């Protein structure tokens, strides 16, 4: 710029000089040299202008670079500030992590202690579990037994239910029969009352005949009662005879078995040792045992109870025929079983 200013100043001087030279003809100056200098100066001025424009371009580019660098510096400073913040945060985090690590180490120690205690507890629990497992197995076995018993009892319960149903049916039949008999009795009573009314209207002779009939019916009832009593006694007597026969047959069978097992010589030897005869020895062997006597006592008591039951039924109010029939049938069934047993024993003894 200074060179430009100097050159501009020189040009102005030259122009002034040329003007003054044109005016003053008295002082002649060589024009050729001045033109050359002016041309040189113009060339220099052009070159300097070009250089100035170049310099301006470079300055602009440098300014742009400076601005970019300033922006980069600002960005970098921001980054540095951010990094410093991150660093401080990371330091704090590291310190926190160190404190956490210390706390975790302490926790780890306590956890190790608790883990050891838990392992001990686990061992104890496993032992307890094994013992409980054995007890559970035993309980399962018991449960299986109980289930079997339950099924057995359920079967018994079902059977009893069926029996009860059958008995209920019998009871309903008996009730219907009793109702029918009651109806018949009511009809008879009504008929009797009507007849009594008629008879009351009739003569005293008819009353005497009715009294005679009533006496006859009472006598018939008494005869029926005596018949039932004698029948039951005879039935009991026949059952007792059958029992004694069965006992005798059993003893005979036992005696025969003993005789078969023992030879005549051994029997005579036993008699000579005991200093008794063979018949006495047989009588000794024929003595009843305690169990048989107890059994006979029980049977006798049962027979006694049965007779008392029959007596109560006869003394009871009407209707009692079905109950009496059941009681007699029960004894007859017992007699039938005893007859079958006696016949089978007799077959075996023969």
UniProtKB/TrEMBL annotation:
Locate the compositionally biased regions of type Basic and acidic residues. Answer: 1-17
What is this protein's record name?
CNTLN protein
> Which positions carry the signal peptide feature in this UniProt record?
none
Q: Name the domain of life.
A: Eukaryota
Q: Where is this region: Disordered?
A: 1-31
Q: Which UniProt keywords apply?
A: Coiled coil
The protein's matches in Gene3D superfamilies, at most eight in alphabetical order, are given as:
1.20.5.170
SUPFAM superfamilies membership? Tropomyosin
- What GO biological process terms does the UniProt entry carry, in alphabetical order? centriole-centriole cohesion
Q: Which GO terms describe its cellular component?
A: centriole; centrosome
- Coiled-coil positions: 31-156
Keyword GTP-binding present in the record's keywords: the answer is no
Name of the gene: Cntln_0
